[in-house]
What does this fold into?
Amino acid sequence: MSKRFKGKTCVYCAGVGLSETADHVFAREFLPVEHRGNLPKVAACQPCNGTKSELEHYLAAVLPFGGRHPASPSMLTEQVPRRIDANRRLQRELSEGQQHAWITEQGVTRRALAIPFKGEKLHQLFVMITRGLTAHHFGHVIPADHYVGASSLARWVQPYMEQMLSMRGAQRVSCSIGTGLFLYEGVQGIDTPSLTIWRYRIYGGITLADTDQNGEMSDTIWATSTRLASQSILTA
It folds into this structure.
């Protein structure tokens, strides 16, 4: 491991533990082999790295099912099967939990096959990704007692979030990883470095549908960080 990542402040727990390793903010297993170069890296302690890896192993096995990126079919045939085969419990959950749901896209409602999915794991991972990208791009480690939240939101909420994202900030970033497999934008507050807002789109846009409400849900993940929990915009 490079010395520049060892013995540093862990960006995920913000110094509760010192870094013992370098962590890819976006795990390599989310991407085909040919797209794994030059991924953002940050300093991480072993406990945080382990927690994040558990989330990544689960999500790397289920997210490609909803992918719309041209690389999604090859990932489903080449990478996902061995991940599911190695996890009998997940294999059973996916097999027994499939159902049909009504989803609305661009004003058109249709019936689609729904894969059971633990959305809280996605939100937990993107809280950590938000901390990682804030450190990587803006050079700021969000303190442990500051609020960071991530969530998928109904489309009617998104114009308000987009308006906030377009506001003037101290720093701004827009990136594409793996020819669009991961797209993200972020902006940092002018006077408060821990104030950030981020928009993520993964695998060409995965529809995260609420089967209980039969409603329209977003294919976008939003995240915010603030200095105080009372200032929060999103809830994880």
Notes: Confidence is low (pLDDT under 50) at residues 210-216, 230-236. The CA atoms of residues 102 and 111 lie 5 Å apart. The longest helix spans residues 119-138. DSSP finds six helices and nine strands in the chain.
